[in-house]
Amino acid sequence: MALAIVLTGCSADDPSVTVYLVQRLGPDGPPGQIAPLLEPVERPSREGMGAAAQVLVQLRQGPTPDERARGMTAPVESTTRLRLDRIEDSIAFVDVAGRRLHYVGVASIVFSLTELGAIDRVRVCCGHRHDGSRVFVHTRASYRGWRGEPCAERRENRCVRDR
To answer: Are 91 and 119 in contact (CB under 8 A)?
Structure first.
């Protein structure tokens, strides 16, 4: 089982992982933006560490100095510990210790881990929906219509999708 977790998402053809950081408001944010958004950034892969574990480490570390200069902020507080418990049936099980995650932190974990081909759902031990109800398994669809939802094109602060 541990070997499967280490190898998940790793490929010689793709020497990077994608993590979703918060793009803050203000002059550094996209034009017309009225709420912080999740934006993808690519990071180089670390040798000897599985892609899913790398994603969690890099989310916790937050933006690089260059990313901060471009208006990115951390979706997860540095005092919050994230641990990949396992990947089973395309579900990543993530344990959280320390400070409770905010909605945007859970969304960031979900979008970042589901970038990996082997994961399409994420179970975060303390995840909540924005309406306050408890959710145990999240997908990208869990965040449809949320103002911070990452997408290629936005109109009137809403994500535009191909129909």
So the answer is: yes
Identify the CA nearest to 102 among candidates 6, 40, 150, 36.
36
- Going through 45-110 in order, the beta strands assigned E by DSSP cover 72-73, 81-88, 91-97
Helix (H) or strand (E) holding 40: strand 37-44
Q: CA 117, CA 10: separation in Å to the nearest integer?
A: 10
Query: Would you list the domain boundaries of the chain?
Result: 2-158
The rounded distance, in Å, linking the Cα atoms of 154 and 95 is 33
Smallest Cα–Cα separation from 20: which of 49, 70, 59, 60? Answer: 59
Token pair for 60: 């916790």
- For residue 72, report the phi and psi dihedrals to the nearest 5 degrees: -85, 145
pLDDT tens by residue, 68-117: 988 899 999 888 899 999 999 999 999 888 877 888 999 999 999 999 98
Residue bearing tokens 């999740």: 38
| Residue 50 near residue 9, CB atoms below 8 Å | yes
Phi/psi for 130 (5° steps) reads -65, -20
Nearest 5°: CA angle at 101, between 100 and 105? Answer: 170
Mean pLDDT, residues 34-51: 87
pTM: 0.79
